[in-house]
Amino acid sequence: MGFLKLIEPRVELLNRKIRCLSGDGMIFITLSKVRKKPTKEMIAEVSRLMKEISKEGVKLLGFYWTLGRYDTVLIMEAPNEKTAMKAIVKVGEFVQTETLVAVPREEAIKLVE
After folding, report:
1. Distance CA 61, CA 4 (A)
2. What is the pTM of this model?
3. Where are the domains of the chain?
4. Does the pLDDT of residue 107 top 70, yes or no?
5. Which of 31, 90, 104, 110 is least enclosed by beta carbons within 10 angstroms?
C-alpha cells in the first residue's frame, strides 16, 4: 500500500500530461529493446521513421530512453490498432517491441462500476 501512495501522484501527473497532448484516438504504450548497439546512423534513421509515422495519423505523446528491462518507452495515440501496428512494424528492424493498449484510469473505473 505504501508503494501505491508513493507513485499515485506521479502517475496522475503523467496521466494529465497525456490527456493534454492526446485527442480522441487510442493510446498505445510500446516497450522496446534495441536489437544492436545504437549508432548515430541508426538513431538518425529511427528519427526519420518517427517523423514519417507522425504524418500517417500517429501522434507521438512521449518517447523515453530507460534503464532496466526495456531500452525505450514510446507513448503514442493512433486512431485504431491497425494504424498503430503499421507504425510499430516500421521500426522492427531496429527494436524488438511489446505494445500495450492503454485505457485511461477514469474509463477503466467506469467498467468496474
Report:
1. 24
2. 0.77
3. 2-112
4. yes
5. 110
